[in-house]
Design a protein that fits this description.
alpha+beta; eight-stranded mixed sheet; globular; single chain; Muramoyl-pentapeptide Carboxypeptidase, domain 2; about 200 residues; binds zinc ion
Length: about 200
């Protein structure tokens, strides 16, 4: 794979934020099984939209990140235009894990189709020019992912992610895309695809 090698020094930083992972939040009104959900090994089943590139990996188990699985996922979420990869915010992986939780609850478990994840500076510059993307996109800091899963109702998953409240959630009803990031809590519904 043509990904830029990940830098060990940065991984130490990632481990330092690991306690911020969602763990078992005692949020009032949490559905039955919420705590158990967070106690199980956390794995992701991902597919790059428009390709057969697919990955299943466990990234968190027994209270810590599983470095091999975590790094595999980070490489998978690379900028496909440049091949560059970075350490993704582990909390973003938790939000994708929540998407699996939603799929399981609606009997629609399937690979999460990733249409966009990490964006290098050069790719972002291109997207700013061609699609009016944000120059300060959280995709550039490994804190955002765009997904499109036609087998789940986009508006229902959107409302579910709002309830989870992990950061920013954007819904694009025309295409069924969801933008999910770990920035401040905020929400939007828009017609254009890019964020
Ligand atoms: Zn996005």
């Amino acid at each position: 794979m043509n990904s830029t090698l990940l830098i060990r020094r940065d991984f130490v930083k990632v481990l330092a934020v690991a306690p911020l992972l969602y763990g078992a939040p005692s949020s009032a009104g949490a559905p039955k099984g919420w705590e158990e959900f967070w106690r199980q090994p956390r794995s992701l089943w991902l597919r790059r939209a428009g390709s057969s590139d697919e990955l299943r990996a466990v990234y968190y188990m027994n209270g810590s990140l599983v470095s091999a699985g975590y790094e595999e996922i980070c490489r998978f979420l690379r900028d496909v235009h440049t091949g560059e990869a970075v350490y993704m915010d582990p909390r973003l992986l938790d939000l994708l894990f929540v998407v699996h939780g939603y799929q399981i609850s609606t009997a629609s478990l399937a690979p999460i189709r990733v249409t966009n994840a990490y964006e290098s500076k050069s790719t972002n510059r291109r997207l700013v020019a061609s699609h009016g993307a944000s120059k300060t996109s959280r995709h550039m800091s490994g804190q955002a992912v765009d997904i499109a899963n036609p087998e789940v109702a986009g508006d229902a998953l959107y409302r579910y992610m709002l309830w989870v409240g992990g950061g920013g959630v954007g819904h694009y009803p025309d295409t069924g895309h969801l933008h999910i990031d770990t920035g401040p809590r905020r929400t939007w519904v828009a017609r254009r695809v890019r964020t």
